[in-house]
Write a structure and sequence with these properties.
- By secondary structure, the chain is α/β, with parallel strands linked by helices.
- It folds into 2 domains: 5-52, RecR Domain 1 (Helicase, Ruva Protein, domain 3, Orthogonal Bundle), CATH 1.10.8.420; 62-197, Dna Topoisomerase Vi A Subunit, Chain: A, domain 2 (3-Layer(aba) Sandwich).
- It is built from 7 helices and 7 strands, in the order αααβββαβαβαβαβ.
- A hairpin with a 6-residue loop joins strand 1 and strand 2.
């Protein structure tokens, strides 16, 4: 038997990260009590994202246009490449207004306990990009300062050093165990300014 629409909506909302059953129920009732245009707009936005957003063929960020706006911006310094774990980390670095290079998004970090090895990240794309002749003189590893981020930074350093590219790590202005996504602009700016060789 098919579940009733409210139960189905609650179940689907509860699948979102950080949303428990009670919050999902509150959200479902909020949608029900709103004007029908709100629900239609939300549904259209979800469909639009699923149908039109894809990975940038250059940096692997999420984008509607390919290559993305950052990769196709001639004012960005192509010799600087900032490697981040996820798209929210890229957005956090952009908010600092301190960085004018380009990016590469890994879509995660190495975490053997969670079954995430280097092969599950966008590292092959990064290597192809660097071997393909992009004029990169420095790779800034801006992974989170936690165990997984450090493991990923060390792994990338071992891969990139033999290529003759300068590899730096953002300074520890970002607290250990913290996520770039939640760091303020000044902290990220200080971390970028104080980056060091790995």
């Amino acid at each position: 038997m098919k579940p009733d629409p409210i139960t189905r909506l609650t179940t689907e909302l509860a699948k979102l990260p950080g949303i428990g059953e009670k919050t999902a129920q509150r959200l479902a009732y909020h949608i029900l009590q709103s004007k029908p245009e709100y629900a239609r707009g939300l549904a259209e936005a979800l469909v639009d994202v699923v149908e039109n957003v894809r990975l940038c063929s250059v940096c692997c960020t999420l984008t509607e246009q390919d290559p993305c706006a950052i990769c196709s911006d001639p004012r960005r310094d192509p010799s600087l490449l900032c490697v981040v774990e996820n798209v929210p980390d890229l957005l956090a670095v952009e908010r600092s207004r301190e960085y004018r290079g380009r990016y590469h998004v890994l879509h995660g970090a190495i975490s053997p306990l969670d079954g995430v090895g280097p092969d599950r990240l966008r590292i092959r794309e990064l290597l192809r990009r660097l071997e393909g002749g992009e004029p990169v003189r420095e790779v800034i590893v801006a992974t989170n300062p936690d165990v997984e981020g450090e493991a990923t930074a060390l792994y990338l350093t071992k891969l990139l050093r033999p290529m003759g590219i300068r590899v730096t790590r953002i300074a520890q202005g970002v607290p250990i165990g913290g996520d770039l996504e939640y760091a303020d602009q000044a902290t990220i700016a200080r971390a970028l300014q104080g980056r060091r060789e790995i």
